[in-house]
Design brief:
Largest interface: A-B, 22 and 23 residues
Order of helices and strands of chain A: EEHEEEEEEEEEEHE
Number of strands of chain B: 13
Distance between the termini of chain A: 12 Å
Low-confidence stretches of chain A: none
Number of helices of chain A: 2
CATH class of chain B: Mainly Beta
Number of helices of chain B: 2
CATH architecture of chain A: Beta Barrel
Distance between the termini of chain B: 22 Å
Largest sheet of chain B: 9 strands, antiparallel
Oligomer: heterodimer
CATH architecture of chain B: Beta Barrel
Number of strands of chain A: 13
Radius of gyration of chain A: 14 Å
Low-confidence stretches of chain B: 8-19
Structural class of chain A: alpha+beta
CATH topology of chain A: Cyclophilin
Order of helices and strands of chain B: EEEHEEEEEEEEEEH
Structural class of chain B: mainly beta
Mean pLDDT of chain A: 95
Strand content of chain A: 35-45%
CATH topology of chain B: Cyclophilin
């Protein structure tokens, strides 16, 4: 049976997503174990039409990795395999949600092979408008929970 | 919210007996704090500089991402320019405080519209100028020469997390 999650944006917008346990079992397990939680979600700087938020759990391994070909509504865990530092400090692992196509996962430290571990089921047009809203107005809170 | 201000001053420097050489400086003010001065690179990008000069003073919003965000640590003033020739193009090797005119050299479109020329301000050197349609060689036409570049980095992050700021223009 597929594991499903709820995703809610504080500025408006609700989705469900399906975990890809076969493709990314360790990522799904850690993510599922961390639910429910909330985080601050902002627009990416390097990766195109993407939103991202930091997580408190750590997977620390690459499984089902992508740097290109992301589709709207895919959920990736970026484990910062390139070990790039910001302000001299390592970054927490983060979840990336593309809201459009064409992005490539990279930053100043190189490629960021990220684990595709879930897919949103639903209205990508609404997701696109949420992406544009955050692009313009800044970060929101995202809440994730088990269905 | 308060505006960002782009203002223009002109500095005149006299060299030896050879007369005068004019270096054009403009001021950038961010509404939530932060003032910088930038130098136009007229010998490298004369037409772009002229177009930019003609537009001064101006006001606009500045965003942390526009049409997605592919290029890294860039902020995006939203003012649209009417100059789209390529001149002194750069894709790699960007430095903090470099200012570009993105002429949309790759002819990308979004939501059915061709993306118009706009300026880009790099707030760190972690920048490669591109988007979903390919490289975006952009006209390097100005450089920040006065102001704290660490503060500029914090301003870039502030805009990304807190959203756009407003702008206001005035001549010095």
């Amino acid at each position: 049976m597929d594991k499903l999650i709820h995703i809610v944006f504080s500025g408006g917008g609700k989705f469900q997503a399906k975990l890809l346990e076969t493709e990314a079992p360790e990522t799904c397990k850690k993510f599922w174990g961390a639910l429910p939680f909330e985080s601050k979600i902002a627009h990416g700087s390097f990766t195109g039409f993407t939103l991202f938020f930091f997580v408190e759990f750590k997977v620390g391994r690459v499984e089902n990795p992508f740097i290109a070909g992301a589709q709207p509504g895919d959920l990736f865990l970026n484990t910062y395999v390139n070990e790039g530092l910001l302000d001299g400090k390592p970054l927490d692992e983060e979840i990336i949600i593309p809201y459009g196509r064409g992005g490539i996962f990279w930053n100043w430290g190189g490629w960021l092979n990220s684990n595709l571990f879930a897919k949103i089921i639903g209205d990508f047009n609404q997701l696109y408008h949420i992406g544009k809203r955050i692009q313009e107005h800044g970060a929101e809170v995202i809440r994730l929970s088990k269905v | 919210m308060y505006p960002i201000v782009f203002t223009l001053t002109t500095k005149i420097f006299f060299y030896n007996r050879g007369g005068a050489e004019m270096e054009k400086i403009f001021k950038i003010e961010f509404s939530r704090g932060g003032i910088f001065k930038a130098k136009l690179l007229e010998s490298s990008a004369p037409k772009t500089c002229k177009n930019f000069l003609d537009s001064l003073p101006f006001s606009c919003s500045v965003l942390g991402a526009l049409n997605g965000s592919f290029s890294g640590h860039i902020i995006y003033p939203t003012k649209i320019f009417d100059f789209n020739e390529m001149e002194n193009p750069v894709v790699f090797g960007v430095q903090t405080g470099d200012i570009f005119l993105n002429t949309n050299a790759n002819k990308s479109s979004l939501e059915g519209e061709i993306i118009p020329p706009r300026i880009l301000i790099a707030y760190s050197s972690s920048v490669i100028l591109w988007n979903w349609a390919g490289w975006l060689p952009s006209n390097h036409f100005a450089k920040i020469i006065d102001g704290d570049l660490k503060e500029l980095f914090q301003i870039g992050r502030r805009i990304k997390w807190e959203g756009k700021e407003d702008i206001r223009c005035s001549l010095i």
